[in-house]
Design a protein that fits this description.
By secondary structure, the protein is of the alpha+beta class. Helices cover 20% and strands 30% of the residues. The protein contains eight helices and 22 strands. The strands form five sheets. A six-stranded antiparallel sheet has the order 1-19-16-21-14-13. The longest helix is centred in the N-terminal third of the chain and has 14 residues. The protein is globular and about 75 Å long. Bound molecules: 1-hydroxynaphthalene-2-carboxylic acid. 1-hydroxynaphthalene-2-carboxylic acid binds next to β3, β9 and β10. The site of 1-hydroxynaphthalene-2-carboxylic acid has 12 residues, from β3, β9 and β10.
C-alpha cells in the first residue's frame, strides 16, 4: 500500500476519551479516517490471483457427484479472491464462479436484480434460456442474463447428444448490487420457463447489423443475449491478418449492445483479445479490476510483482490500477470483464500506458 496521503494526528488519552464520548452519540472524528477514505490512488483488498482450470475441473466434477443441480439451485464453485475470503466475490465489485450442469440436468428458472454473464468453457448439449428464448451453448460463447430476466440452464440427456458436462464461467454484479442493498429475486413457478420464440430470434432481430424498425431500447442491457464465439473469433482473426497489432492489447474488441453502442450490461463490460504466438505486450493499468479467462492458448501475464503462467480456461484477476503485461507462448485468446461501464458512467474510469 502507498504512504497515507493524509496522516492522522496522534491521539492522546484525552482525545481518545473525547472520541469515546463522540461514539456514544454515533459521531466520529473525520480526521482519524481521512487517510483511509481519500487515497491518492486506488486502494483495494482485491489481490492478483490465478485459478488453474486443470486443478479446478476435477473439483467441479467432484461437486457434480456430491450435489445435484436441483439441490444446489446453481452448482457453482465460487472463485473467491484470496484478499476477499468469505465475501463471495472475485473483486470488490464483481462475483465469478465456475458452473457445472451434467447431461440431463436442469438448473431451474429464476430471476434477480443482479446482471449475469456466462463465458462457456465446455458444452456439447448445454443450453440456457433467457426471457423466453433458448440458446445452445458452445465453447467460447458469451451469454448475457440481464437484470430481472427469467433464466434457466440445462444440458441435453446423454441420449440426445448431451455428451459430457456443460461448464462455464459466471460473472455477476452481485457485490455491486448488494452494496446498494438492491437485491430482489424470485423463482419461476415452473422448473423451466416456456419458450416464446424460436432459437436464433434475437440474433436475427438485433445481431445482423440491423434493428427492428424504429427500435427503441426497452432496457439498459443488450437485446442480443448470445454472442457466438465463432463470429467474435473470426473478427479477431481477420483484424490480425489486416494489422496493426496494439503493443499493449494485441487485437482487442469490446462486446457491445448494438442498440446503444454501449456495454452489453449496464454494470459489466466484456472484451475479447487475440495475442499472437510470441506476443509480449507492454505494461498497462486501468482503474477497473479485471477478470480474465483464457479462451484458447497459453502464455503468461505479469500482474504487479507476480507472474501467472496460464493455460486454456484458467482464470486470473488484475486488481484496480495494478500494472499488467500479457505474453503469449502459443496464439491465445483472452476473454475479460470488469465494472468499467459503472466507472465510466460515474466519471471515475482511468487508464494508463506504462
Ligand atoms: C445465479 O443466478 C447463477 O443463474 C449463477 O446461473 C451464479 C451466483 C450468485 C447469485 C446468483 C445462474 C450465481 C447466481
Amino acid at each position: 500500500m502507498t504512504k497515507p496521503f493524509y496522516a492522522a494526528p496522534d491521539a492522546s488519552a484525552a482525545m481518545r476519551e473525547f472520541y469515546a464520548r463522540l461514539a456514544q452519540k454515533n459521531a466520529a472524528p473525520l480526521w482519524e479516517a481521512l487517510a483511509q477514505l481519500v487515497t491518492p490512488e486506488p486502494v483495494t483488498l482485491t489481490q492478483p490471483a490465478h485459478w488453474s482450470y486443470s486443478e479446478l475441473r476435477p473439483l467441479l466434477l467432484e461437486a457434480g457427484q456430491r450435489i445435484s443441480a436441483e439441490q444446489a439451485e446453481r452448482r457453482v464453485l465460487v472463485l473467491e479472491n484470496p484478499g476477499l475470503r468469505g465475501s463471495v466475490r472475485i473483486t470488490e465489485s464483481l462475483y465469478a464462479g465456475l458452473q457445472l450442469v451434467l447431461p440431463g440436468e436442469i438448473a431451474r428458472s429464476h430471476r434477480h436484480q443482479a446482471s449475469a454473464l456466462r463465458f462457456v468453457l465446455e458444452s456439447n448439449g448445454g443450453f440456457t434460456a433467457v426471457e423466453g428464448e433458448r440458446a445452445a451453448m458452445q465453447a467460447g460463447d458469451f451469454i448475457l442474463t440481464p437484470s430481472w430476466a427469467w433464466h434457466d440452464h440445462g444440458n441435453l440427456p446423454a441420449s440426445e447428444d448431451g455428451a459430457g458436462p456443460a461448464i462455464w464461467l459466471d460473472g455477476l454484479d452481485i457485490p455491486l448490487v448488494n452494496s446498494l442493498s438492491g437485491s430482489f429475486a424470485e423463482h419461476y413457478p415452473a422448473e423451466q420457463q416456456p419458450l416464446a420464440r424460436p432459437e436464433g430470434d434475437a440474433q436475427a432481430c438485433y445481431a445482423a447489423n440491423m434493428l427492428p424498425l424504429e427500435y427503441r431500447a426497452p432496457r439498459l442491457s443488450s437485446p442480443v443475449f448470445a454472442y457466438p464465439y465463432a463470429r467474435s473469433r473470426a473478427a479477431l482473426q481477420q483484424l490480425y491478418q489486416n494489422g496493426p497489432l496494439d503493443a499493449t492489447h494485441g487485437i482487442k474488441l469490446q462486446y457491445v449492445n448494438p442498440a446503444t453502442g454501449g456495454a452489453p450490461l449496464p454494470t459489466i463490460g466484456a472484451f475479447l483479445q487475440l495475442l499472437p504466438a510470441g506476443f509480449s505486450g507492454a505494461a498497462y493499468r486501468s482503474s477497473d479490476a479485471t477478470i480474465y479467462c483464457v479462451a484458447e492458448g497459453s502464455g503468461s501475464s505479469r500482474v504487479g510483482a507476480q507472474t501467472f503462467a496460464w493455460q486454456e480456461h484458467d482464470v486470473f484477476v488484475v486488481p484496480n490500477w495494478q500494472p499488467v503485461a500479457h505474453s503469449a507462448t502459443s496464439e491465445a485468446v483472452l476473454f475479460s470483464f470488469s465494472d468499467r461501464p459503472v466507472q465510466k458512467a460515474l466519471g471515475l474510469w482511468r487508464e494508463q500506458a506504462l
